[in-house]
Amino acid sequence: MAHLRPHQLSELQELYDQATAVVRWLMDHEQLPHSGSPLLDVLDDTRAAQNLRGMRMAARDIREMLSALTPSQRAQIEADLGTASRATLRRSTSEDQRAAAAILERGHIRNDREYYLLRARLGMIEGEPTLDTEAQAITALLDRYRQ
User: How far apart are CA 118 and CA 126, in angstroms?
Assistant: First the structure.
């Protein structure tokens, strides 16, 4: 088990709460292609192991799952989440958006973490006409990184 500092334990718990709330919402609204129970088990195990890095990855992956929802469904999940989970979701999404903007401004992807962050951002904005330019720029960076 990792030895996390108090602020890291707090982040771990916030991410866990957000991720489990989203998964439960997706299960309740039949948006998961299969039972979400194994996913909840993984989140429980990740929290128990105090694996902050793993929880960050899981939370980002779960946020990426929201990109498959319609804009009205995304608005509904945000409205249905508790205040704390909603705030964490918004903050995480904003942080990802700022990080994606910094990568785009730099003009290249440095590592796999940045690659997956951009993939998640692309999933969130794809199909939004007002964000076509950003989506095209992200796609170009992803293609270059894969080469």
Answer: 12
